[in-house]
Amino acid sequence: xxxxxxxxxxxxxxxxxxxxxxxxxxxxxxxxxxxxxxxxxxxxxxxxxxxxxxxxxxxxxxxxxxxxxxxxxxxxxxxxxxxxxxxxxxxxxxxxxxxxxxxxxxxxxxxxxxxxxxxxxxxxxxxxxxxxxxxxxxxxxxxxxxxxxxxxxxxxxxxxxxx
Length: 163
Known about the structure:
It contains five helices and seven strands. It is elongated, with a radius of gyration of 21 Å. A hairpin with a 4-residue loop joins strand 3 and strand 4. The protein is an alpha/beta fold. Helix 1 packs parallel to helix 2 (27-41), helix 1 packs antiparallel against helix 3 and helix 2 packs antiparallel against helix 3 (49-74). The chain has a five-stranded mixed β-sheet.
């Protein structure tokens, strides 16, 4: 069984995030620094809205740069190994809610995959994701919604995600 805290990314997601990191740590960072310098030249920084806005943007950009670096340094590319018929990250999972006689299909993956996926993405740490992760197809599992309501789901299928 794989570590449920690993972040698995498709090659496309890894490439997209790598390009975002390159932009944020290069051209975007340089642009923000130039706007801060230009605002400083205007004088009184207490009353300088442009300066404060640029400094706030700089803080947000640097936080995202740190987040991306950490994610990319620790990401695994591809899909995690899994046993046949057992729910794992990187799979498209279909579940049935017996109480509502309704089904739902989603990708069990990272939120970074959600930006380009053509299907809903649930994190393995979400209530539903955690409930089905590692469970065999055909199992009925219970979990608690964020509002505290208990629900049961039957795992109908788990297939590799092909994008």
